[in-house]
């Protein structure tokens, strides 16, 4: 699974080697995808590790534009980059260019970004006119081999584990159980070690890949889950799709160190959104999350309300297997576990309408 990186706290250099010439836009409408255009110059030519546009809300949450330029060459004549698109809720934000060199991250000048409300009608239900074609409500034991399998996935380089993606996972079907109408995922320190020498964690995955049914979501479907977000540092739950290395759409990813934020991502035709809502998203809270897979636009829903449209979609012929899992962060992009105590995550259902 590809990772949507959250930008770290930026240090401010007294005399940065690069200088921000302009940054646009400074205003936009809520829920409308927008890109940022940044122009910088340098006193002398230099190559920076990355160059991009960062955004902070009034609480200091990271809401950066995707699509930073890597190994960018900045000269006195100037360089202009355009980021990937994202959407923002109505409000006031701090917006600034940044660059990364071998000494760290440096901001280039902050300005106000104002997002104005957009008048919108009531969206129809994403299940309107559709039939339920996949319904896992975890009312009985996991149907291993028939509906689900949990030993390996083609999304992981080594099948059962994938240290390349900053994960400590080692897949074990015993890490997923059913209790009280929910699937309970539990990650614990493993006896295995990864190829990079890190101590692995036995953890759970449910995937339809390699099963008798072999169920796949496809263009036009709506998939939804209801989950209880984990509280422990290092837990990394997600519902996503995968097939042949180019079919990933993340219904959600969550990290407790970003307590009020869900990562919503389309890796087929790249787009993404960091959805932040302290009233709906928090460690230990139940939340319903879904995505409608459209040929030209995917729509994400949280607790029944549409929160993001990517306007890129998955194409007419897209299809992919389902994956619901609890990964364990290795500490590269998000905090690793504090100790060896088990990590927990719960799911009440996974449903697909067609």
Describe the structure.
The protein is mainly β. It has two domains: 18-116, Immunoglobulin-like; 132-353, Sandwich (Jelly Rolls), CATH 2.60.120.200. The protein has no helices and 25 strands. A hairpin with a 4-residue loop joins strand 19 and strand 20. The model is unreliable at 1-14 (pLDDT under 50).
Protein topology:
Elements: E1 18-24, E2 27-29, E3 37-42, E4 46-56, E5 69-74, E6 79-82, E7 91-101, E8 104-116, E9 132-136, E10 169-171, E11 176-179, E12 182-193, E13 199-203, E14 205-207, E15 216-218, E16 222-228, E17 235-242, E18 249-253, E19 261-266, E20 271-276, E21 286-292, E22 299-302, E23 305-309, E24 319-328, E25 343-353
Parallel strand pairs: 2-8, 10-13
Antiparallel strand pairs: 1-3, 3-6, 4-5, 4-7, 7-8, 9-25, 11-12, 12-13, 12-25, 14-24, 15-24, 16-21, 16-25, 17-18, 17-24, 18-19, 19-20, 21-22, 22-23
Mean pLDDT, nearest integer?
Answer: 92
Unreliable stretches (pLDDT < 50, length at least 5) are 1-14
What is the class of the largest domain in the CATH system?
A: Mainly Beta
* Domains (count): 2
Distance between the termini: 25 Å
Question: What would you call the structural class?
Answer: mainly beta
**Helix proportion range:** under 10%
- Label the CATH architecture of the largest domain: Sandwich
**Oligomer kind:** single chain
Radius of gyration, taken over Cα atoms and rounded to an integer in Å: 21 Å
Q: Helices and strands, in N-to-C order? A: EEEEEEEEEEEEEEEEEEEEEEEEE
Using the alpha-carbon principal axes, give the shape: globular
How much of the sequence lies in strands comes to: over 45%
Biggest beta sheet attributes: 10 strands, mixed
